[in-house]
Amino acid sequence: MMFLDDFSYYAVCVPIYKNQLLFEVRSKYVSQPSEVSFPGGKIEEGEIPFEAASRELREETRLHILSKVCDVEPVVTPFNTVIFPFVVEVDMRDIEINNYEVFETFLVPIDFFETPYKVAYVDVKLEPPDDFPYDLIPLQKEYPWKKGKYKVMFYRWNNYVIWGITARIAHRVAQLLRAH
C-alpha cells in the first residue's frame, strides 16, 4: 500500500514469545539511540512490508518467525512516515542480538499494554515558510490552517520507558489479541 505524496515506508515485527512482547533498546550506533522499539526498519526497493519486517527481525535478533499472528493497521505519522506492523510468534531460544543495532532486549507481558501509564498530546500545525505563495490562496496570510493533536502514549516497565509509536503499536496489539 502506497500513499499519495512523499512518504518513507518502514515495517516492524511485533514478536510474541509465551504471551510476552519482545522489545529492543536501540544501540548508540543507530538513529534514535537508547529508544525502546520493535525490530524493524526501512522497506527496501522491491520488498513488500512483511518481507522487510522479517528481514529486519533476522538482522537484529537472528530470530525466525514461527507464525504470523496478524497484521496491525499501518501507522501514518505527521512527519511523513508510514509504518507497517506485523505480530509474529518467535522462539527466543535462538536469539542472538546484533550489537551494532541493538543494545539489549527484554520481554513484557502482552496484557500490560491494556492501559497506558500516561497519555499526552502534541499540537500539530502547519507553518508555511516566508516564501510561501500566499497570493495564490483564498484569504492569503489569514488562511485558517487546520490544526491537529497527536496522541503519545507512555508505559513504564521496570527501568524502561516504552513510548510514542512503539507504545501505540503495543497498545493496539494488546487490543487485537484480547479480541481473539
Strand content: 35-45%
Low-confidence stretches: none
How far the N terminus sits from the C terminus, by CA atoms, comes to 25 Å
CATH superfamily: Nucleoside Triphosphate Pyrophosphohydrolase
Describe the structure.
The structure is a single chain. This protein is of the alpha+beta class and 180 residues long. It has a single domain, classed as Nucleoside Triphosphate Pyrophosphohydrolase (Alpha-Beta Complex). Strands 1, 2, 3, 4, 5, 6, 7 and 8 form an eight-stranded mixed beta sheet that branches. A three-stranded antiparallel beta sheet has the order 9-10-11. The longest helix is centred in the last third of the chain and has 16 residues, at 164-179. The chain has helices at residues 49-61, 164-179; strands at residues 8-17, 20-26, 36-37, 40-42, 65-71, 75-76, 81-90, 102-109, 118-125, 147-157, 160-163. The protein contains two helices and eleven strands, in the order E-E-E-E-H-E-E-E-E-E-E-E-H. Strand 6 (75-76) and strand 7 form a beta hairpin. It starts with 7 loop residues before the first strand and ends with a helix.
Concise synopsis of the structure shown:
By secondary structure, the protein is of the alpha+beta class. 16% of the residues lie in helices and 40% in strands. It has two helices and eleven strands; from the N terminus they run E-E-E-E-H-E-E-E-E-E-E-E-H.
